[in-house]
User: Fold this.
Amino acid sequence: MGNIYTFYSPRRGSGLTTLLVQIGEWLAAHTELSVALFDFTSRATNACTLSGNEMSLNDFLAGGEYRFDPMKPVAICDLKPDEEDSFRALRKAADSFDLVFVDLSNRLDQIGHQVLELSNRIILVAPGTELVVRYFHKMLELGRLLEKKETKRMDLLLHRVRHEDEVAILTEEIKTRMMGFVKDRPDEDDLKRVAENFYYDYYLQKLSDRRMEHFRQAIETFNRRLNVKEPGELAEQLWGAVHDLELTYNKRILLFRWLVFRSRLGQTFSQAAMELIPRFIAEDFNSLARDLAVETESLGSLMVVADKNRPA
Assistant:
């Protein structure tokens, strides 16, 4: 579950819900992603899919399946669920949809904090005027509060910008990461510019997940292959474990040498592999060779100093 984006604004009635529907519709029309929107700004949680067929909340929580139709916002619940149902629906949506948008405008009560803790990314939405500076200081308090519980990625989205030249001035004064801005009346370019953030973020996360799975499988393969029974088999077993990895021959030689070097420092092969294998998959040979040279030279320098300071 890594796809819940919560949008927080310090004021209600800013048109944020409408903007999120527009962004979701753009994604439904131009990409293959499915999007769900939850509105936690009222006491009754509302949720809608931005591509899908109508379904009751009870059916949704019971495991009902969606048949996706592009550009068709429909309600999945128009009743008043209790808090437990709301969070169950949010968690299930994260497993059922590619992207889940949550509108949390001006709601920092207990429910709001629970939503923020479930979120993977928080977008602070502020008006693109001089008021943004005042609002942003309020948002920083929110950020400090969240950081005490869990590190969250937070970005700023300027909403209802009147003049584009104001954006550079405001972001310079605020000095924070900004994901984009939309004009007072967002056009196709505005929606595309903001929506593409979520599109690329989704696939970068997928790529990261696949790479982590690749790392995990490579380390498991290494540990499974490295089953030393006799001391004399050590070098052969180690090379066999390295050889089974999907690396170039030069990288295998380098990894073998690095693992042997680390073992002489007292690190187990499994510990060293967990640290080194992801690097050998992700980095190029030259940078790895330089790093090994630096590591061995640094150790050599320390040993020379230690020998000089050793009592006679």
User: Anything to note?
Assistant: The chain has two domains: 4-186, 211-309. The first strand starts at residue 4 and ends at 8. The CA atoms of residues 251 and 284 lie 9 Å apart. Residues 211-309 form one domain.
